[in-house]
Specification:
By secondary structure, the chain is of the alpha/beta class. It has helices spanning about 25-35, 80-95, 110-120, 130-140, 145-155, 165-170, 180-185, 195-200, 225-240, 255-265, 280-290, 305-310; strands spanning about 10-15, 40-45, 65-70, 100-105, 125-130, 160, 185, 215-220, 245-250, 270-275, 290-295, 315. The protein is globular.
Length: about 325
């Protein structure tokens, strides 16, 4: 699966991934490409000191590296063009653009604008991935960025959509370059870690009639993940005489304090595990549960759904 280039020439790919520290999706892709013999540079902006060094990869190919830039400022959330100028200056300081053969921008707006500038300045081709934030934030509520997003799509070699739902929605965007999208768009879901494919459990889960329903959630604590409503549903089930518990695996996000407060007030219903990096430990926990629950407000199709399915767990998700 790796032979898409001349094996005698080490191709240098630059990943521009604004949220690299926030998701293992990127590091898994980078590690897989490293095994294929690619030299890779990853540029990401660390939004906090704790993000520096997160999701590191032990590269096998010389010249590869991850660059955690510290140029983030609080006002960058409000001033898109100022953020982009700052990010581009930092990118140029960290990476020798003249050595780069190809660029993968991992979001349309925040990362895509940097890939577009590299193409204009150095002629480096790029592909761009359209993600949940692009569809549900930028394309809906940030019209001052639309011209940039349109130009990024026009200049990209390929436009990757993680889900078919996003692939259908993008052409309905007010300024979408529909002809370019029709020609360039491809649907490539995020890849699941091989660990889960090597440990598939198909026996299913039988719930004893006298035991409570055991649900498990895995993810961060942002409002989009809807953990508070899930906890409310568990409280309601118990109030209606249907025993149920919820094991919560994760951390980080705006709802953290409220989640912790509710869990501590009802320890008989909620069990907080924090983040679990050990896959064996997480797999063992999955095997104790009856249902995996992740009812996000908006979700591309999280890899954790697939991980739970490999362990024979039915999943509870939000429609659409």
């Amino acid at each position: 699966m790796c032979r898409y280039w001349d094996a005698d020439i080490m191709m240098h790919v630059l990943h521009i991934a604004n949220d690299y520290a926030g998701s293992k999706v990127y590091s898994r892709l980078v590690a897989a490409l490293d095994a294929c013999g690619l030299r890779q540079s990853v540029f990401t902006v660390a939004r906090s000191a704790s993000a520096v060094g997160r999701n590191r990869v032990e590269f096998q190919n010389q010249g590869s590296g991850i660059y955690y830039s510290n140029n983030f400022r609080w006002y960058h959330r409000l001033l898109f063009r100022e953020k982009s100028r700052s990010n581009y200056a930092s990118l140029r300081a960290h990476v020798d653009a003249r050595s780069v053969d190809y660029v993968h921008a991992h979001t349309l707006f925040s990362d895509g604008i940097l890939a577009l500038r590299l193409k204009k300045e150095f002629g480096i081709p790029y592909i761009v991935t359209v993600r949940n934030t692009d569809i549900n934030l930028y394309m809906r509520y940030m019209p001052h960025t639309w011209a940039v997003g349109r130009d990024v799509l026009r200049e990209a070699d390929r436009v990757v959509f993680i889900s078919k739902a996003h692939m259908r929605r993008a052409p309905r965007w007010v300024v979408a370059p529909r002809e370019e999208l029709a020609r360039k768009a491809v649907n490539i879901p995020n890849g699941v870690d091989s660990y889960w494919l090597e440990h598939i459990e198909s026996s299913g889960h039988t719930k004893p009639t006298d035991s409570p329903w055991r649900l498990i959630y895995v993810g961060n604590f942002t409002a989009n993940k809807n953990v508070l409503r899930l906890m409310s549903a568990v409280l309601r089930l118990n109030g209606e005489g249907i025993p149920a518990t919820l094991d919560i695996v994760g951390a980080r996000g705006r709802d953290t304090n409220r989640i912790v407060r509710i869990a501590r007030a009802h320890p008989e219903m909620f069990n907080l595990h924090g983040e679990i990096e050990d896959k064996d430990k997480l797999r063992a926990l999955f095997r104790e549960m009856h249902i995996f629950a992740l009812a996000s407000l908006k979700e591309t199709f999280g890899l954790v759904y697939v991980e739970a399915l490999t362990q024979g767990l039915p999943i509870l998700y939000s429609e659409g």
